[in-house]
Design a protein that fits this description.
This protein is mainly α. Helices cover 50% and strands 0% of the residues. The chain is built from 4 helices and no strands. The longest helix has 34 residues, at 41-74.
């Protein structure tokens, strides 16, 4: 099963693999990672939980990369730096959220606490 995002000084564990589905299976709205084919409720709960944790871990990591990219784009040392308004527009965020993401990204790049969102919560 996937593990929650580790905190600082803990090794990052890999979530369960999210295998890509064939195009014909993905186009079927009832098909989702073959969960619909699992008849045993215990097995279904285990696999669905595994996928839930994997998606959470993937979302947490993606958020961290978004924050680091925002911080890099806002870096005043860059000749092509963007304002937080520009970053907000590109990422479809509010400007306040973009400011928080820039700060979160700077914290991450300085080696700050991982696994906390831009508001300081997990």
């Amino acid at each position: 099963m996937a593990e929650p995002t580790p905190r600082r000084n803990e090794p990052r564990l890999r979530p369960a693999p999210l295998l890509f589905e064939p195009a014909e299976a993905a186009s079927d709205p009832e098909h989702f990672f073959d969960l619909e084919s699992i008849d045993d409720p215990r097995a279904l709960l285990a696999r669905a939980t595994e996928l839930t944790l994997a998606f959470r871990a993937a979302a947490d990591r993606a958020l961290e990369f978004q924050a680091m990219a925002a911080a890099q784009l806002a870096d005043p040392r860059r000749f092509d730096r963007l304002t937080t308004a520009d970053i907000a527009e590109r990422a479809e965020w509010t400007e306040d959220y973009a400011k928080k993401m820039v700060e979160f990204g700077r914290d991450l790049m300085r080696g700050g606490v991982e696994g906390q969102g831009p508001g300081g919560t997990a």
